[in-house]
Task: structure prediction
Amino acid sequence: MGTLNPEEWTRQALMECAEAIWGCDSLDKANSLIASRSTPICLPNYVAGELRLPSSPSTTFIDSFAPKTGSLLCRLPCAQQDDVEEAISYARAAFQTWSKTTRAERSRHLRRISELLQEHRELFAVWESIDQGKTLERARIEVDRAISNFSYFSTYILHEQTAARVVDGVALTYEHRSPAGVFALISPWNMPLYLLTWKIAPCIAFGCTAVAKPSEITSMSAYLLGVLLQKAGLPAGVVNIVLGDGPTTGAALVASPLIDGVSFTGGTPTGIAIRRATAHQIRKHMSLELGGKNPNLIFADAMAPATRERTIRIAASAAFENQGEICLCGSRIYVERAAYAEFVREFTEYVAKNYTLRKTVGAVASRQHYNKIRGYLQLAADEKATFNLGAVPPLLDRDGSQGYWIAPTILTDVAPGSLLQQDEIFGPVVTISPFEDEEDAVRLANASEYGLAAVLLTNDGARMRRVGEQIEAGLVWVNCWLVRELGTPFGGMKNSGTGREGGEYSRDVFTVVRTLHLPAY
Ligand SMILES: NC(=O)C1=CN([C@@H]2O[C@H](COP(=O)(O)OP(=O)(O)OC[C@H]3O[C@@H](n4cnc5c(N)ncnc54)[C@H](O)[C@@H]3O)[C@@H](O)[C@H]2O)C=CC1
Ligand SMILES: O=C(O)/C=C/C=C(\O)C(=O)O
Result:
């Protein structure tokens, strides 16, 4: 926790700081702005259409660090209960009018936001890369997806239909849907803007209003989004963004009786805490997208000369994209025994050549996360796993000033039952083990408390369906990974969550439905 003199941060100073950051659309400009400041950048909340610091006298401030250098990047308020309640009250007031706007009007607002985001694509990518640790190239991909989140739902709502039918010639029934209310939208630190906008876009498209809370580790792009929403002319209070940690700000937000629904992405223990805190509020809509420990099954036929390069490329990208900090990453690789040795050798060579720290692999998101991943790699060493690539990273200095860099790590000979193959490490670490046949492959794939995603690499068309349909995962990718069409159901089985989002599934989250029965004469 840092200190900050709120009196220095007048509304004028906040606006000036926002404009200075807004002018930095290259890494050089952003880094020289950071270096030139005598006080850290201060990120305010975005509430009722304004950038403002919380007014609670008990507000504390959180320091947020740049993962690539380990240096202080910015300071943000940890909003307390009274400031969270104030934001909710603005969202409730805005709901009265926003929920009654036409689809065409909401669509125009979403389109305007996506256009403005497109105009400022590089600005968002630069700050996301500095704040989260990802490469600039990866950050650009994620800003593009954030743009699509708004553009997709801006058109989806114009074309959606609801069902009507005549029942036994007696009644005409139809679905009447209305916006479900005010939502708490809680997002994690791995793909900050991408996942925050995956919630905000459908929420406001379907006529709801929001109080959003990004992760305290990566609040920069949420703050910039607040500035952008203001510039885009979104009516005040439709989206409010409060900054702060989980136990204080997040917990106050999700538990509020004035919140009608929660859309959350993050770790499974946090999902359980949210469920517990809201168990008595049956009416609250709940969409929880949680952790994963996803299997990647590689059959020997996929290593045939014609597809070998593709197989290795997909397995590598599923393992190491965004430093492995994507809940969909395939971190448990299983290879059919006949191709096992060959796969381990060629995969290791490919990763060593194509996944280079700083160039194509960024830093992990925080000091705490570095220590978590390091703990698992120490466990691997203690359990005498083989490090085909990577090593136990060094302990960080007290000031962490070398940044949070962990090289891609490939482990084999992992002890049976090891936590390395059970826990979500969420970093650039994969294990590879052999399997004997299809049945064994399915058994290993499903031997997890999680059920978010799976990758299947094979050239056998019948097997694609036979195996694919037995895997306990909400998303199964065959000979591809992270192919996303925003209308498909997205979410997990088992401890990976509950509910689905995307297209009509997001509509289910953000609307209430009543079935009307009219006489059919
Ligand atoms: N998408 C995913 O699958 C993600 C998985 N994780 C997993 O969780 C592990 C721990 O990471 P954390 O940063 O602790 O993730 P987390 O699940 O605690 O954080 C996600 C979001 O939830 C908020 N939050 C935390 N406690 C809350 C509460 N009681 N009520 C409401 N909101 C709350 C956080 O402030 C953040 O905005 C990671 O190492 C990774 O294994 C983390 C982030 C994303
Ligand atoms: O919606 C997507 O395409 C990706 C989502 C990724 C996550 O939810 C995650 O990594 O947490």
Notes: The CA atoms of residues 285 and 509 lie 6 Å apart. Residues 186-190, 213, 215-216, 245-247, 250-251, 254, 265-267, 270, 273-274, 290-291, 327, 369, 372, 424, 426 surround NAI (ligand 1) (CB under 6 Å). The chain has a mean pLDDT of 96.
